[in-house]
């Protein structure tokens, strides 16, 4: 299975390195993506928006179709989950499953996060004090230092541009949510109560929610467990 790994804010394709070997060892072909504006040292972020990232994913989905007729799996961490879901909306027949790592898809018309501190056209990795305690579980001092060393600024447009969704066939694509900093019961309750932010989840025909208790960056804090959870989602 071709697996496209979409990083969340402040991370590039190399951030998936702790889990790609396990995916490959299970017979899959991982494609860790570095999205536009997120290459190390890149400074020209103006004009890069959420749709830019979605289109970059679609370019790879389409290119793989020319050599492999089977649908692909999209794995999106954090904000990458919304990017993956928008790609599934654009190519529902080409996506076998979306796996959202500590991520929930934003409804149409909503930005991923327009409340983070901005510097020009960039959203740098903020100070740790701006995160919730649940985000930082298991992220010890050494991992925080490593994260900050590999972090790249997120293009402002990716955080602020509203999500575009058009094709209701996206709801036929199977989805697995790997819940790390929030319990599965909270998500299910939000669906049952008709909460607006859970609207996309409520309409999904095939939704699994599994728990991997840790902070918001399991590829750093629990990479082996994250790899196993992704493999279970794909193969199970």
UniProtKB/TrEMBL annotation:
InterPro entries: AB_hydrolase_1, AB_hydrolase_fold, Sec-Metab_Biosynth_Hydrolase. GO terms for molecular function: catalytic activity. Residues 3-228 form the AB hydrolase-1 domain. This is Pimeloyl-ACP methyl ester carboxylesterase. It comes from Microcella frigidaquae.
